[in-house]
C-alpha cells in the first residue's frame, strides 16, 4: 500500500498572534513553526501505524512551501515516512495548495491520502475535500478511527452530536482528527535515519488562488471581569439573567 | 443570479445550522438585491414551504430518497447540478460535518473561491469580502473571493436564526439523479439527550480543577439545568476523563455560544482561542490569578465544589 500524507507548517499553538503592515500581514517575528498538529499527531502517526502493521507500506509526505519548510519535513521523516516531497512555492489559498498536492498525488498513484482535519492557522478544513474532487476520489472528513482490511477501509467520523461509521474502498482521501492515533515523539534512531531519507523538491504547477486575505483583526478585548463573591452565587445568576440576558 | 442555500438534514429533521444558513443567505440576497433560494436533497418531515418565513423565495427539492444517505461526492455533484440550473452565484453551507466535506469538493469542481467558517455577512461595496475566524479563534481574517461563483460555509452561532414574516416559499421539484455513492454509512450513533456542542447556546465546561471524572456530575447537572452542552479542556480529554469530542480549544472544537461557563479551567491561550467568540464568558476558579479571568465577563473566585451546587440551586429557583 502507498500512502501520501499532506503536511502543513503552522505557527506554534502558544504563539502570540499579531499582524503588521496595517493589519494585512501575519507578523512572523519570533514565531516558532511546528508541523500542523492534526497532520502530525493523527494523519502521520496513523500512517506509520499502518506501515508497522504491513511492512510493504510506503509513506510519502508532501508539503507546499519554500526552503524554510525543510526543517519540518526532516522532523516528519524522523517520525516515519520514506520520502518527503516539497512543492517549491509559497502556499496560496486552499484551492491552490490542493491543486499542487493533487499534481504530486497523480504522479505517485497512492492508495490512501491522509490530511489533517484542518490547519490551525486558516482553519478552512478544505484541502482534503478539494484534493478528493481534483483526483475524483471518495472523501471522508474528520475521521477519528481508521481500519483497513484488504481494499476496504472502515472509518469512524465525527458528526453533530455523535459519530458515524463509514465503509469505502481504496483509493480514498481521509482527513484525520483527534482519536486516530496517539501523539509520538521522534526517537534518536528516527532522527538520524531521517537525515539520509530522500527530500525531493518539485516545481509548482502554479495554480492561482481563488481567494485572498485582505486584512486581519484581533478579537475585541474584554473590558474587565465583573467579580461576584463566592458566597453570593445568586447574584451571578441574577446578572446572567437580567444584565447579560443569556439565561 | 441568486443565492443558493444548501439545507442539511438528518433523520428527517432540518439541522439547526441550516436554519441559520437560510437566515444568512436571505440577508445576503437582500443585500445583493437578488433572490434567496434553497436546495433540499432527499426528504424531510417539515413542510418546506414554511421555510419562506426565513426570507427564502424558492426551494428546489430533488426528492430521491437515496439522497438521505448520500456521501459528500454525491451531494457535491447534485449541488453543482442545481447551481448550474438555478444560475446561483453564491452558495451557502453550514460549517458542519456535511459542509466541511461537501463545500470544498464543490469549490474545486466549480473553481469557486471558498470561505470556510464565515462569521459575518460579506462586505460587497468593494469586491466580495467575507470575515472568518483564523488561528483557531485567536483572530479573524477578511477574505476576498475573486471567482465568479462564491461559496461560503457559515460558522455555527455566528448569525442567528431570523424569521422575516409569514411568507411561504415556492417549491420547485427538480430532477437530479444521484451519482454513485462510494462511501457507505454503516451506522450512526447519536448521543441521545445531549445538546450537540457546536450548536449549543449555553456550554458548561470543566477542567482539571474538577479533580477527577467522578466529579463531572457538577458539570452535567449545571448543563442540564441550563439546557446546555457539556465541554472540557484539553488535559481532561487527554487524561481520558471525558471523550475527545467534548474538548474545546485550538485543537478541539471551537464554540461560540451565548454563554460559556468555565469551571476549574485556568485558560491557556489554546483554550481561549476556542471560546473567545462566546457572547458571555463566566469563569469559576479558586485561583484568582487564573488567566481566564482576563477573558471573562463574570467571574467567581472560589471552590467549584462549593460554588457549582449553589449555582445549580440558583438556576432552579430562577426557572421556577
UniProtKB/TrEMBL annotation, chain A:
The entry's keywords: Electron transport, Transport
Any matching Pfam family: ETF
Nucleus is among the record's keywords: no
Start and end residues of each Electron transfer flavoprotein alpha/beta-subunit N-terminal domain: 23-211
Gene Ontology CC terms: cytosol
Keyword Electron transport: yes
GO terms for MF: electron transfer activity
Entry-linked InterPro entries: ETF_a/b_N (IPR014730), ETF_b (IPR012255), ETF_beta_N (IPR033948), Rossmann-like_a/b/a_fold (IPR014729)
PANTHER family with a match to the protein in the record: ELECTRON TRANSFER FLAVOPROTEIN BETA-SUBUNIT (PTHR21294), ELECTRON TRANSFER FLAVOPROTEIN SUBUNIT BETA (PTHR21294:SF8)
Protein family membership: Belongs to the ETF beta-subunit/FixA family.
Protein name as catalogued: Electron transfer flavoprotein subunit beta
Gene source species: Arachidicoccus soli
From TrEMBL, chain B:
Record-linked InterPro entries: DHS-like_NAD/FAD-binding_dom (IPR029035), ETF_a/b_N (IPR014730), ETF_a/FixB (IPR001308), ETF_asu_C (IPR014731), Rossmann-like_a/b/a_fold (IPR014729)
Keyword Ribosomal protein (UniProt): no
Binding site for FAD: 208, 233-234, 264-271, 285
Pfam families: ETF (PF01012), ETF_alpha (PF00766)
GO biological process: fatty acid beta-oxidation using acyl-CoA dehydrogenase
Keywords noted in UniProt: Electron transport, FAD, Flavoprotein, Transport
Cofactor note: Binds 1 FAD per dimer.
Domain Electron transfer flavoprotein alpha/beta-subunit N-terminal: from-to ranges: 3-195
Single GO term (MF): flavin adenine dinucleotide binding
Isomerase in keyword set: no
Reported cofactor(s): FAD
Family assignment from sequence similarity: Belongs to the ETF alpha-subunit/FixB family.
Official protein name in the record: Electron transfer flavoprotein subunit alpha/FixB family protein
Source species: Arachidicoccus soli
Amino acid at each position: 500500500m502507498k500512502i501520501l500524507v499532506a503536511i502543513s507548517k503552522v505557527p506554534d499553538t502558544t504563539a502570540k498572534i499579531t499582524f503588521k503592515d496595517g493589519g494585512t500581514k501575519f507578523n512572523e517575528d519570533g514565531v516558532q513553526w511546528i508541523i500542523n498538529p492534526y497532520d502530525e499527531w493523527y494523519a502521520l502517526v496513523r500512517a506509520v501505524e499502518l506501515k508497522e502493521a504491513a511492512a510493504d507500506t510506503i509513506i510519502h509526505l508532501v508539503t507546499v512551501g519554500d526552503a524554510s519548510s525543510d526543517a519540518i519535513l526532516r522532523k516528519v521523516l524522523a517520525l516515519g515516512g520514506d520520502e518527503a516531497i516539497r512543492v517549491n512555492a509559497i502556499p496560496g489559498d486552499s484551492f491552490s495548495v490542493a491543486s499542487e498536492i493533487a499534481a504530486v498525488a497523480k504522479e505517485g498513484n497512492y492508495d490512501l491520502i491522509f490530511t489533517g482535519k484542518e490547519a490551525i492557522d486558516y482553519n478552512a478544513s478544505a484541502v482534503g475535500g478539494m484534493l478528493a474532487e481534483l483526483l475524483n476520489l471518495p472523501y471522508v472528513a474528520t475521521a477519528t478511527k481508521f481500519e483497513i482490511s484488504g481494499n476496504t477501509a472502515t472509518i469512524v467520523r465525527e458528526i453533530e452530536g455523535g459519530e458515524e461509521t463509514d465503509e469505502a474502498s481504496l483509493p480514498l482521501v481521509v482527513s484525520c482528527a483527534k482519536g486516530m492515533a496517539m501523539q509520538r515523539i521522534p526517537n534518536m534512531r528516527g532522527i538520524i535515519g531521517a537525515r539520509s531519507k530522500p527530500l525531493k523538491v518539485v516545481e509548482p504547477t502554479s495554480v492561482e488562488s481563488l481567494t485572498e486575505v485582505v486584512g486581519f483583526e484581533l478579537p475585541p478585548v474584554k473590558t474587565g471581569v465583573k467579580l461576584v463573591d463566592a458566597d453570593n452565587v445568586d447574584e451571578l445568576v441574577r446578572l446572567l439573567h437580567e444584565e447579560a440576558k443569556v439565561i | 443570479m441568486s443565492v443558493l442555500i444548501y439545507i442539511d438534514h438528518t433523520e428527517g429533521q432540518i439541522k439547526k445550522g441550516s436554519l441559520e444558513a437560510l437566515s444568512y443567505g436571505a440577508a445576503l440576497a437582500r443585500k445583493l438585491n437578488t433572490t434567496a433560494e434553497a436546495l433540499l436533497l432527499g426528504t424531510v418531515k417539515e413542510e418546506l414551504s414554511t421555510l419562506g418565513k426565513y426570507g427564502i423565495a424558492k426551494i428546489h427539492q430533488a426528492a430521491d430518497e437515496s439522497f438521505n444517505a448520500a456521501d459528500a461526492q454525491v451531494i457535491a455533484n447534485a449541488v453543482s447540478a442545481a447551481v448550474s440550473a438555478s444560475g446561483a452565484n453564491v452558495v451557502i453551507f453550514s460549517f458542519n460535518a456535511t459542509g466541511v466535506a461537501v463545500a470544498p469538493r464543490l469549490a474545486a469542481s466549480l473553481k469557486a473561491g471558498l470561505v470556510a467558517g464565515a462569521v459575518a455577512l460579506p462586505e460587497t461595496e468593494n469586491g466580495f469580502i467575507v470575515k472568518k475566524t483564523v488561528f483557531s479563534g485567536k483572530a479573524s481574517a477578511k477574505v476576498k473571493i475573486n471567482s465568479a461563483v462564491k461559496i461560503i460555509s457559515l460558522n455555527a452561532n455566528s448569525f442567528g436564526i431570523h424569521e422575516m414574516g409569514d411568507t411561504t416559499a415556492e417549491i420547485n421539484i427538480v430532477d437530479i439523479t444521484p451519482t454513485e455513492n462510494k462511501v457507505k454509512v454503516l451506522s450512526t450513533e447519536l448521543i441521545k439527550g445531549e445538546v450537540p456542542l457546536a450548536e449549543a447556546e449555553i456550554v458548561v465546561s470543566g477542567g482539571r480543577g474538577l479533580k477527577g471524572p467522578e466529579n463531572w456530575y457538577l458539570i452535567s447537572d449545571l448543563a442540564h439545568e441550563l439546557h446546555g452542552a457539556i465541554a472540557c479542556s484539553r488535559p481532561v480529554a487527554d487524561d481520558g476523563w471525558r471523550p475527545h469530542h467534548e474538548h474545546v480549544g485550538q485543537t478541539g472544537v471551537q464554540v461560540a455560544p451565548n454563554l460559556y461557563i468555565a469551571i476549574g479551567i485556568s485558560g491557556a491561550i489554546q483554550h481561549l482561542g476556542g471560546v473567545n467568540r462566546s457572547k458571555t464568558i463566566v469563569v469559576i476558579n479558586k485561583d484568582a490569578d487564573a488567566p481566564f479571568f482576563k477573558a471573562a465577563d463574570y467571574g467567581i473566585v472560589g471552590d467549584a465544589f462549593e460554588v457549582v451546587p449553589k449555582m445549580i440551586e440558583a438556576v432552579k429557583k430562577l426557572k421556577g
